Each structure stands twice: as C-alpha cells, then as structure tokens.
From TrEMBL:
The lineage of its organism: Bacteria, Bacillati, Actinomycetota, Actinomycetes, Streptosporangiales. It holds the Pfam family AlkZ-like. This is Winged helix DNA-binding domain-containing protein.
Length: 365
C-alpha cells in the first residue's frame, strides 16, 4: 500500500523544489532550469519570481541571460509563453507540438482555407530572413494567403513554428510589441526532431512533484502525460494523497518534513507554481481558488504565508511612492502581517528602485 502524503507534506515538497523554502544563491539559468521554466505571459513576472527565489538576484542577471541567449522566452507548456533555458527549449519543443497543434481548434470557422503545409514553411522562411513582430508576420502572410483570416495565420505561426522572442534593453527585457526569430536562427540549432516525453515528465516531477497524471497533464497540456508516467513507473516511487489518488515522484527528490518553516513570499502574476497541478490544494485552498483568476483569465499575484496562498497582492507607483496592497482571503495574524510587510518592502525596493518611500498596506474591500 502506498504511503499517504498530506496536503502539508505536498506543500513543503513542492516549495523545496521551487526554491521557496529558502532563497538560493545560484545562477539565473540554473534556477530557471531547476524550476523547469517560468510562465512569462508578460515580461515582468519572471523578474519578480526570481527575486523571490534567489539570494542577491539583480534584474541585470536576467537581462544578461536573455541577451546571451542562455534563456529564451517562447511558447511552450499549455500553449503559453514561458521563460526556458535554451537547452530545455531545444530538447522539449517537439514534445509540445501535439498539444500546440490541438490548440488550433480554438480558431473554429476562422481556420477556413488555412493549409498548414503551405503556411508553416512560408512563415518559417519569413522569420529566418529577419526577426519580425506578429503584426508584420500577419501582414506578410496575408499578402500570400489573402483568403485566410489574418488572426488564424498569426495563431498558426505561433503554434506551429518554433519561435523565440527577441529581447531588448527595455526595463523588463522585452518591448510591448516584440519581434520573434526562428529558434534555429536565434540559437544556432533547431529543436530536437524527436519527442522526449519521458524525460519531460522526469523534469516535471523534479520541479513540481510528487504529482498525479492529472497534475502532469494540467501543467503540460499534453494528453499523453499519463502514458509517459506509466512507462516510467519502474523508475519512480509512488505515493497517495489524502483522497487516495496516485502520486509519482523521483526516488531521491526532496520531501522535507511537514514542520519545516516556510517564509513569507510574494509570487508574481502567472507564476507557474499556482498553475502546475490539477489539485492545487498544496498551494491554495479550493475555497480561494476562484479568486486566483480574473474574468479575462489573468492569473493574479498571490502571497504565501506558512507555505500557502493567503491572498492576492498588487502594486502602485505614484509620485515616487511605491505601494504594495495585500488583499487577504481571510484575516491575517499579526505575525503574518509583520513578516509580509518586511518582505513586501524589500520587494518594492527591487521593483521600484527610484521610489523615495515604500508602503505595504492591507486593502479594505
């Protein structure tokens, strides 16, 4: 019979792998590799997410890794933009293609006349010639395929052509309308032609385990996640959660005790930690999960205290005053407020270095 892991035990195991039990002093690329990517729908969140995880992190560290092409921002898990190490992107981009191709279904009637066998090579030749914004890609493809919806053309390129976003000197590494280059042109090597689903699942468990097949599918968007875990079963240890669901893990992965202290931490919008499991109770209680996402599907920034999400947060910068507002799900004890205030003020000094004053408040809704 499999050992049962409580929600608290799963919390501490996941926080340990996500560098959230203690800040670590490791290079940025190594950290992103250990996290196995960071969701990067917007450019700012990975900077804040790394600040919360790494000792001595400076924004220039991430800028340098983007500029020297050690890290890339590209479409990967769940058909969303992620910050990845270049080797991981090249190794696992092909594994993502079945999910990315399936995502094309959202186009519906707009896909009328769209022939991927014609559009994909045409788009690849365009971005191999020079990096382009998506507005430019759509316009150029529309000239060649005038009877196809321009948004459908752009979405097909995003899903079916291996692209990386070209960094800039902007504050958060990318402009509002960034250019995209072919992965092969930018990195000097094309993605591996072979899928590596089993290795993908091993890396997922290293970063987010112990986890179920449903968790792995939620994180990746791949329907074949469970099949890969079944193939790997002889190499894994198997636990059960408090509801009897099977959880897979690497034998030597960290699983600290339930009583290990978990410091206050601020997670940015879209942080992968709150999106990496079907059952998210290890991070956020089911009762609070609806508060995590806005009506237009933005994933809110949450703060952790005692290891779990206790509320959402937001910042404002006006007249040289940087303000961080806590919106707790439930009233917080004084010890939590004290710890979160200290951490929040440090975060504001990082995010708004020109501020003359930093303020952490609890919003009254």
């Amino acid at each position: 019979m499999a050992d049962i892991l409580s929600v608290q035990a799963l919390n501490r195991a996941t926080l340990a792998r996500q560098l959230l039990l203690a800040r670590e002093r490791v290079p940025v690329a190594e950290a992103v590799g250990r996290l196995f990517g960071m969701q990067a729908q917007e450019p700012r969140p990975p900077f804040l997410g790394l600040w919360s995880r790494l000792a001595g992190f400076e924004a220039s560290d991430l800028h340098a890794a983007l500029q020297d092409r050690t890290l890339v921002r590209a479409t990967m898990m769940r058909a969303t933009l992620h910050l990845m190490t270049a080797p991981d992107y090249l190794a696992f981009r092909t594994s993502m293609q079945p999910m990315l191709t399936a995502a094309m279904r959202v186009l519906g009637a707009r896909a009328k006349g769209l022939d991927l066998e014609e559009v994909v090579p045409a788009a690849r030749s365009l971005v191999e010639e020079r990096p382009l914004t998506f507005n430019e890609v759509r316009a150029l493809l529309q000239e060649r395929f005038p009877d196809v919806n321009d948004r459908a053309l752009g979405y097909a390129v995003r899903m079916c052509v291996p692209l990386v976003m070209v960094p800039s000197e902007d504050r958060w590494g990318f402009p509002r309308s960034a250019r995209f280059a072919s992965a092969e042109g930018w990195l000097g090597s094309a993605p591996s032609p072979e899928a590596a689903d089993d290795d993908l699942m091993l890396r997922y468990l290293a970063a987010y385990g112990p986890a179920s097949a449903a968790d792995a599918q939620t994180w990746s968007g791949l329907r074949a996640a469970g099949e890969a875990l079944e193939r790997l079963r002889p190499r894994l240890v198997v636990f059960a959660d408090d509801k009897g669901r099977e959880l897979f893990d690497l034998p030597d992965a960290p699983r600290p005790g339930e009583d290990v202290p978990a410091p206050a931490r601020f997670l940015p919008e879209f942080d992968s930690l709150v999106l990496a499991h079907a059952d998210r109770r290890r991070i956020i209680a089911d009762a609070h999960r609806p508060s995590l996402t806005t009506k237009n599907l933005r994933v809110r920034a949450v703060f952790l205290w005692g290891g779990f999400a206790r509320g959402i947060w937001e910042t404002e910068y006006k007249r040289k005053v940087a303000t961080l507002r806590l919106r707790p799900f439930e009233p917080l004890p004084r010890a939590a407020l004290d710890e979160l205030t200290a951490e929040g003020e440090a975060l504001l000094r990082f995010a708004e270095p020109e501020a003359k004053e930093t303020v952490v408040t609890v919003a009254e809704d």
